Amino acid sequence: MSSTETGAKVQEIVFSPTFWNGVEDCMKTSEPLFAVLRIVYGGVRPAMPEVFACLDLAKKKISDSFASSLGILKKVMDIVHRRWADQTGQKLYEAALFLNPNKYFDIKENDRAYASRLREMFNDVIEKMITDDDDLIAKVSDLANQCENAGGCFGKKLPMLQRKRKSPSK
Question: Is 160 helix (H, G, I), strand (E, B) or coil?
Fold first, then answer.
């Protein structure tokens, strides 16, 4: 027991379940965001599409953590969206993420809605870059469709092929 009034108030706060629930909420929010910051400020600077992919993963983790507390989730996501608003509106970055098969096909497998949004951003960028040639826009779009729907190294993870090594004949 504390001998002062201030100490007693501190003790009451520290022993309060409300305090520790708040600490837990802070940790659930900050851990995924710190992971993004470690990647951004690490030794090798990632490209913006990589940062977007990391941020989307962080937002998913936060959403999963607060699935039963929608009020807290809304407050947290409002803060995240407000902070990243200047960056997340850049269609070029998301179009670049669409063009990165290493990232895009994992996103497509796990979050079809976001993959669709990336494709929309790609289409918007192409239409902005190619303003006077509808045939060229159609060709680029067809090529993107082919890559997006292709198998093999573009769209599927291939099992390792094991080749039998032939013994050199003597």
Answer: coil
Neighbours of 66 (CB within 10 A): 19
SS3 3: coil
8 A C-beta contact, residue 93 and residue 123? no
| Per-residue pLDDT tens digits for 36-90 | 989 888 888 787 778 878 888 899 999 999 999 999 999 999 988 888 766 656 7
Cβ count near 118 (within 10 Å): 28
The Cα angle at residue 1 between residues 10 and 27, in degrees rounded to 5: 35
Domain boundaries, the chain: 14-154
For residue 166, name the pLDDT band (cuts at 50, 70, 90): very low
Six token digits for residue 50: 């990589």
